[in-house]
Design goal:
This protein starts with a helix and ends with a helix. It is an alpha+beta fold. It folds into three domains: 30 residues, no CATH class; 112 residues, no CATH class; 32 residues, no CATH class.
């Protein structure tokens, strides 16, 4: 709602003036709307596919915005070497995110470690890195992403096409990431078609 009001305010100001998307984006930055757009993105509910790697760490291989509650499919390898899948609901995800966030406050969370070159973290760290805003609220999600180490570790754990598309949009036209993922934006449609169209 805050974002809609903000954008409505921008277009009210811009009425009668021919502005492209870049101009609207610049006005949104100048009018303080950029932060509310980031909050909207951070707090959006997510559907994730999280995969365990050979070293036991987890990475996100698929990410999509969802209108329903956040949830995740966890792909793991059991003691016999068989691949398994299980569904994790929002309550389970939130519990793990809260436990990891407690470690963040204590300074012991792996999400804050600098200089880590390998991809992936533990399951709790992975969920917090990708879905902190939707599970714990925009204020916590934005505060975490403002931490340089957390933001860096977050990028190593998310290998989804949606994350790459959203990253490209952040420095591109400023269209919403939800629209870009589903091909509503010309800028993003080329990248998503190359990912899924092969």
């Amino acid at each position: 709602m805050k974002e809609k009001n903000c954008i409505k305010h921008i277009y009210t100001i811009a009425s009668g003036v021919a502005l492209g998307s870049a101009g609207v984006m610049m006005m949104s930055v100048l009018s303080g709307c950029e932060s509310s757009q980031q909050e909207q993105k951070t707090g959006q509910n997510k559907f994730l596919v999280i995969e365990q790697q050979a070293d036991g760490k987890y990475i996100v291989v698929e990410e999509m915005p969802t209108e329903g509650p956040s949830r995740a499919i966890i792909r793991e390898v059991d003691e016999n070497g068989n691949k398994t899948e299980r569904l994790m609901n929002e309550d389970e995800m939130k519990k793990l995110a809260e436990q990891e966030y407690q470690k963040v406050q204590e300074g012991s969370s792996e999400t804050l470690k600098s200089g880590e070159s390998s991809a992936g973290m533990g399951l709790g760290g992975t969920i917090l890195a990708v879905a902190a805003g939707s599970l714990l609220g925009n204020m916590i999600g934005n505060a975490l992403m403002n931490n340089k180490n957390f933001a860096s570790r977050s990028s190593t754990v998310n290998k989804s096409a949606y994350s790459r598309s959203a990253g490209g949009q952040a420095s591109g036209s400023g269209s919403s990431t939800k629209k870009s993922f589903f091909g509503g934006s010309k800028t993003a449609s080329a990248s998503t078609s190359s990912t899924y169209g092969s």
